[in-house]
Design a protein that fits this description.
Blueprint lengths: L7 E5 L4 H12 L4 E5 L4 H11 L6 E4 L2 E4 L1 H9 L4
Parallel strand pairs: 1-2
Antiparallel strand pairs: 1-3, 3-4
């Protein structure tokens, strides 16, 4: 069972399939998350690109640390690290 003390933030867009998959995965594992939509906030998205070096969404943070996208989230969950 997932440890609900993790703070997961998923930065994404409404039409992003990988964003939806990341949210579904969190829901299936009982892992609470905060969704931050970037559709109407290009400045925030560019700031995240500069901060992370990551150009695609989702941009996922766990406890304030950038971990990557959907595949990285799935890997951490599957390894039991999250």
């Amino acid at each position: 069972m997932a440890d609900s003390t993790y703070r997961v933030q998923i930065y994404g867009t409404r039409l992003c399939g990988f964003c939806s998959a990341a949210k579904r995965l969190c829901e299936q594992r009982g892992l609470p998350y905060e969704e931050i939509l970037l559709d109407q906030d290009p400045e925030r998205r560019m700031a995240l690109v500069e901060e992370t070096g990551w150009r695609t969404v989702p941009m996922i943070f766990v406890d304030g640390a950038f971990i990557g996208g959907f595949q990285e989230l799935r890997g951490l969950i599957n390894q039991g690290d999250l």
